[in-house]
Amino acid sequence: MNEATPIKGDQPDEIDFMELDNIIEMDFNNDPENLIMILQAIQGRYNYLPRPALRYIAEKIDVPLSQIYGVGTFYSTFSLEPRGRNIVSVCLGTACHVRGGERVRERIEESLNLTDGETTDDMRFTFESVRCIGCCSLGPVVKINEDIHGRIGAAEIAETLEKYE
Amino acid sequence: MKIRSIKDLEKTGIEHRKKLYYPDVIKVNIGMASCGIAAGAKASFEKAVTEFHGDNGIQISQTGCLGFCEEEPLVEILGTGKPRVIYRNITEQKIADAIRGYMGRNFNKKWILGQMRDPLCLLENHIDNPVEGVAKLDGIPFLEDIPFYNKQKKIALRNCGYIDPDSVEEYIARLGYFAFLKALNEMTPGEIIEIIKKSGLRGRGGGGFSTGYKWETCAKHEGERYIICNADEGDPGAYMDRSILEGDPHNILEGMLIGALAIGSSRGFIYVRNEYPLAVKRLITAIKEAEKYGLLGDNIAGTNFSFHVKISTGAGAFVCGESTALMASLEGQVGRPRAKYVHTVEKGFRGSPSNLNNVETYANVPAILLKGPEWYAGMGTEQSKGTKVFSLVGKIRNTGLVEVPMGISLREIVFDIGNGIPKKKKFKAVQTGGPSGGCIPEQFLDLRVDFDELTKVGSIMGSGGMIVMDQDTCMVDVARYFLDFLKEESCGQCNPCREGIKRMLEILTDICDGNGKEGDIELLEELSVMIQDFSLCGLGTSAPNPVLTTIRYFRDEYESHIRDKKCPAGVCKALFHYEIDAEACNGCRLCALKCPEEAITGEKKKLHILNQDECIKCGICYEACKFDAIVIR
Ligand SMILES: Cc1cc2nc3c(=O)[nH]c(=O)nc-3n(C[C@H](O)[C@H](O)[C@H](O)COP(=O)(O)O)c2cc1C
Ligand code: FES
User: Fold this and answer.
1) Does the beta carbon of B358 sit less than 6 angstroms from any atom of ligand 1?
2) Domain count, chain B
């Protein structure tokens, strides 16, 4: 993402601060120890971590913004940029790897013309790789949003992706 | 109702044991762990609920995972005086027929995996035998008599698939919380610790440290002490912790309660990885249920012992499974490990004495207290007691979770329980211990699996992932794969790990790309020693293991990559190509139809041609051909 491109959600008026208050105060007691879970809740709501929200959290729970950015960038589930409507995660855990997970990855990358972590221009798909989602018995596994597609072959990728608008 | 004594527990137990084993209705128990759901169990569940809506004679319930993931969705149907039957592969399309068939005594025998009997090893002398009075079905084996189950002994997994994980009553019906109440009412902390020490239980999170000894050390340090459960399960390919949390969450709470009594703690934390939302959901329900019965919270069972449990989730960082990183993450910080001059049992979470154990470790604790340390120590080997759960995955016919006594041979696990390698391929190696472990070749198939034997061959027990590899797995690629994983997951604090792993990965990538040079293997070995010796935490010190074991046992594969520029397994794209074997091809057109690049041409019943310029080596034709006519050259 180009630095100069305005990101949706970068403007404070796009954030519902009342709702943030609810999350930070009611669900997580303004407790800095809950920072990771607060960020998860916010990402659950906005699909990524909007910057004004991070600034707001810093004030609310009295933690330096640098630490919040630290946490937001250290853990792989967090994204500081908007993500697509559908999150396609290919499992590259060992069990999936030996059953052809790499080939599945290549097919997805080719079908969507994306590499790991990227989003299509129309915001339809974000593609990412994960390392084991605990359904190893069904490898290779692709997770699209909440749906787990097990024993998926490279040949079935295009068709499966079609189902997600 | 609040539970105040063993008597209260017994009352609840008897009442629900009846519902569990002698229901007034036909009970349909659907295995609804994540793996089952992914295989279609949720759709089956919903279908059953709508189909039999309003029928008071049928109750549709959920259970955890019985372990035989290959055959999921698994569905058990039972009724008083009727057989207890486990059906396999019961998808949405089959569920209604399976239930109707059962009710009409017209069992679809082809769909039956076996007849259910409880895992007896733990509860046989304690509860009235639930098998009594159950009608038998001729010609259908009991689960424990089929090869997948007959070498297993379920302790940690004793309730997974046998109870509804959201029901504390069903847990109590199977003697849940009895061990805890016994400890609460009758034992001193020292006595509990003594029992755990005597049982020989070693931590199941990877290191294999003595649990009793860890508790004893933690109890000695002053300050507010914490009991923490490591449910980060970062080892890719391992999912036993997930299965226990999803299938038997009260077992973990009870193990932690006993630990809390032993070390003197009133606060517990469970750190669950972000990828396991269902485990979190089931834990939250379990905590509420246990609180309802007064088994968790303030003044438990009317005593002055209080214990509160909080669930925290990770956010996708492998290194957070390491004890000091986990505790930093629990504090809401970046999960970076620290040097352990001072151990976490002395100064851990919030700078206080903290006892961290793995999920499976806690799962064994109530069982040990119930049956006694001698019983537990009677299983396993000299230095590794009890059982271990392994996730048997990869190139294996019967994938699933298996709990076996320590000391069983790899051959028994892979070939008897796992039923060998599919598609008549040849076994190549078993990978254990995840990114910290190694690949064990065929010559060690008779190895007795325990902590020490695995270490002797250069691997480790780890958390119990067992990934089977066949002739189509390239061992150089596997080494490269693990280093790529570790490079991503290294926290970057210390030089040897951050730079060393990166350098090793570059060399391995060169080898896989056909740019390997003489001397690369030796350089890898040299770097390995440096990283092992000088890294800050366990991630770095064990990182070279996958490389070292593959060099040790599969040096010839490295050499053919470097010298002959060939990848014999057909994985490294720069080092092989596919060809069509003129003898074997019968012109069925399947490969040509499936090829996404239209690189294969040929008429029906005539030899096909593969155009090398168009081929992207995606492997689709190789997988598709039923006549082994696509060959790796
Ligand atoms: C890089 C790294 C990752 C680890 N990941 C896990 C894990 O996912 N789960 C776990 O239980 N232990 C993990 N461990 C081991 C823990 O540090 C710790 O030894 C263990 O949780 C202690 O519990 P136990 O004594 O019951 O085994 C990991 C260790 C290292 C160095
Ligand atoms: S390795 Fe892919 S789900 Fe576990």
Assistant:
1) yes
2) 5
User: What is the spatial distance between Cα B546 and Cα B502, in angstroms, rounded to a whole number?
Assistant: 15
Mutation target to probe the A interface, by most A beta carbons within 10 A, among B71, B160, B228, B275 is B275
Q: Say if residue A48 is in the same domain as residue A114.
A: no
What are the tens digits of pLDDT across the range B314-344? 999 999 999 999 999 999 999 999 988 889 9
Burial class (CB in 10 A: 0-12, 13-18, 19+), B170: buried
* Domain-located, residue A16: yes
Residue with tokens 């990101």: A7
Phi, psi torsion values for A127, nearest 5 degrees: -110, 135
Q: Which domain holds residue A109?
A: 86-162
- Asked if B558 and B583 sit in the same domain, the reply is no
What's the average model confidence in pLDDT over A89-110?
Answer: 93
Q: Count chain A–chain B contacts defined by CB atoms under 8 A.
A: 152
Which residue of chain A has the CA closest to B570?
A100
Which atom number of ligand 1 is nearest to the Cα of residue B214? 25
Q: What is the number of other CB atoms lying within 10 angstroms of the CB of residue B306?
A: 13
The whole-angstrom distance between residue B472's C-alpha and the CA centroid of its chain comes to 24
- The pLDDT-based confidence of B121 (bands split at 50, 70, 90) is very low
CATH number of the domain encompassing residue B215: 3.40.50.11540
**How confident is the prediction for chain B on average, in pLDDT?**
94
A109 part of a folded domain = yes
In this prediction, residue B126 carries a pLDDT of: 60
Residues B194 and B140 in one domain: no
Would you say residue B27 lies in a domain?
yes
Q: Sheet of B308-313: strands edge to edge?
A: B308-313, B265-272, B225-231, B354-358
For residue B203 and ligand 1, the question of a CB distance below 6 A is answered with yes
* DSSP secondary structure letters along B335-346: ------SS-TTT
Residues A17 and A65 grouped into a single domain: yes
Q: How far is the CA of B205 from the centre of ligand 1 (A)?
A: 5
Parallel/antiparallel/unpaired status of strands B465-470 and B387-394: parallel
Give, in degrees to the nearest 5, the angle at Cα A138 between A135 and A139. Answer: 95
Question: What span, in angstroms and rounded, lies between the C-alpha atoms of B480 and B439?
Answer: 13
What is the C-alpha separation between B411 and B401, in angstroms, rounded?
A: 16
Contacts of B318 in chain A (CB under 8 A): 131
Residues B184 and B323 in one domain: yes
Residues 6+ apart with CB under 8 A from A39: A49, A57, A68, A71, A72, A78, B315
Residue B587's Cβ-count burial label (10 Å; 0-12, 13-18, 19+) is middle
Identify which of B236, B596, B623 has the shortest CB distance to residue A93: B236
Q: How many C-beta atoms surround the C-beta of residue B363 within 10 A?
A: 27
- Give the total number of structural domains in chain A: 2
Is residue B307 one of the residues assigned to a domain?
yes
Report the atom number in ligand 1 closest to the C-alpha of B359. Answer: 11
B34, B473, B623 member nearest A98 (Cβ): B473
Kindly report the CATH number assigned to the domain that includes residue B461.
3.10.20.600
Taking residues B66-92, report their average pLDDT.
Answer: 93
3-state secondary structure (DSSP) of residue B107:
coil
Same domain, A70 and A94: no
* A83 CA: distance to closest CA in chain B (Å): 17
B contacts of A136 (beta carbons < 8 Å): 236-239, 391, 393, 399, 465
